Amino acid sequence: MIGIDQLFEASGLTIDELADQSGLSADKIAAIVATRWTPSPEDRIQIARVLKVSVEEVIWGHMLDSRNVRYRQFGLQDGF
After folding, report:
1. I need a surface site. Which of 10, 50, 71, 80 has the fewest CB within 10 A?
2. CA–CA gap between residue 47 and residue 24 (Å, rounded)
3. At what angle do helices 4-11 and 41-51 cross, to 10 degrees?
4. Is residue 56 part of a domain?
5. What's the predicted TM-score (pTM) here?
6. Which tens digit of pLDDT belongs to each residue from 35-55?
7. d(Cα 16, Cα 74) in Å, to the nearest integer?
8. How does pLDDT run across 27-38, given as a tens digit for each residue?
9. Domain limits at 66?
């Protein structure tokens, strides 16, 4: 399995090209590729079709451990 972000990068497509070919908005594609948004089953089918892979080959979910979001954004407090 491969992450959607890596698959997108390897495709050579732009966000706009993937959006046009999949029928999804560029904003939604950008969020999916950045793993900020988990696509619906229908969206997954459309994106996989354009990228010429099966839906099952792709890791679609969030790649960032939610417990570490604040730490990665703001770091640890002084004296922690």
Report:
1. 80
2. 9
3. 30
4. yes
5. 0.75
6. 889 999 999 999 999 999 999
7. 31
8. 999 999 998 899
9. 2-74
Token match 């451990």: residue?
Answer: 65
CB atoms < 10 A from the CB of 42, how many? 10
Q: What share of the chain is helix, strand, coil (3-state, %, to 5)?
A: 60, 5, 35
* Pair of tokens at residue 49: 């079709």
Determine the 3-state secondary structure of 71 from DSSP: helix
Of 3, 8, 10, nearest in space to 29 by CA: 8
Residue partners of 69: CB distance under 8 A and separation at least 6? none
Give the CATH number, domain containing residue 62.
1.10.260.40
Report the distance separating Cα 5 and Cα 13, nearest Å. 12
Point out which residues pair with 2 in neighbouring strands.
Answer: 58
Residue type at 60 in one-letter notation? W
